[in-house]
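Good morning N.,

You mentioned wanting to compare the apo and holo forms, so I went ahead and generated the holo version with flavin-adenine dinucleotide. This is what I fed in:
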Amino acid sequence: MYPRKFDYTAPQTIADAVAVLAADEGAKVMAGGMSLLPLMKMRLLSPATIVDIGRIDGLDRIEDRGDHIAIGALVRHAETAASDLVRVHAPALAQAASLTGDVQVRNKGTTCGSLAHADIAADQTAAVIALGATMVANGPGGTREIAAADFFVDTLTSALAPDEILTEVRIPKGGSGSAYDKLGRRGGRSDYAVAGAAAWVDKPNGTITAARVAVTGIGTKPMLVDAVGAALVGTDGSPEAIAAAAEHATEGVTLLEDLYGSEEYKAHLAKVYAARALTAALGD
Ligand SMILES: Cc1cc2nc3c(=O)[nH]c(=O)nc-3n(C[C@H](O)[C@H](O)[C@H](O)COP(=O)(O)OP(=O)(O)OC[C@H]3O[C@@H](n4cnc5c(N)ncnc54)[C@H](O)[C@@H]3O)c2cc1C
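and this is what came out, ligand included:
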């Protein structure tokens, strides 16, 4: 199906792009177009104006900023997955990006686009939450930072205002390891998550001093499950400690039954994948 008629603009600066968004309520940002265009073709979304950010300089980089790495708004999933910086400092995100969709999607879709889209079953959303990332939004009032744990508000709804652009995501360095794993919808791993979990741990001297686990695919939004991390702190991260902590994987989550599984099945998978992600993060 063809989308409804729309205007198209490709500004060359963030300020110009924000100005269009601020002036036109019906305007929508386009990055890779991998989620936006299908929605438009199905006529589930009909923006009056597409603001293509693809020609804005400087958004296509992954940068080492000392205490964090920054991933710009035009960095593709494939680049995030292959980046040595991401693989070393944020393996959970590299793994989530490598498990996002198929080759075409990974070559076109952007990490920030996936985060801004806020699909309940997306992969990189859980990874950035577990990694304690910060989202950088640019709007008419300037720049603001949003913690990843607060960024995902509801199904397909992020904390971005309609006239804001997610210009980069910042991932703090540090910790002993991180990992992401999921069950994909068609039974494999390269598809939206029926259930997935990302884990980050810090275990400096044989004892876990901090841990974060985020889940995706099982509820109304990807989210941090504080109880899992809290149960691990002070332990040695043994298989028994991981299994006990993973039992908390659905605490605070509003479970959502869908075509791919009942609430009970999703709850079970969340515990399995939380344990797998933690095991991999501790072995990292
Ligand atoms: C066949 C297929 C399979 C897929 N499988 C998976 C999968 O297994 N796992 C997974 O996680 N995802 C999957 N996806 C989604 C894919 O990862 C998309 O690329 C991603 O969700 C959106 O990135 P994009 O750059 O294409 O964004 P776009 O499609 O351009 O935009 C998506 C939405 O985000 C907004 N947006 C984009 N960038 C910004 C920005 N910088 N600032 C503000 N708003 C912005 C747009 O306005 C739009 O509302 C799949 C998609 C397809 C088509």
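Residues 28-36, 38, 73, 100-101, 105, 109-110, 112-114, 116-117, 119, 122-123, 160, 165-166, 191-192 surround flavin-adenine dinucleotide (CB under 6 Å).

Happy to go through it together on a call whenever suits you.

Best,
F.
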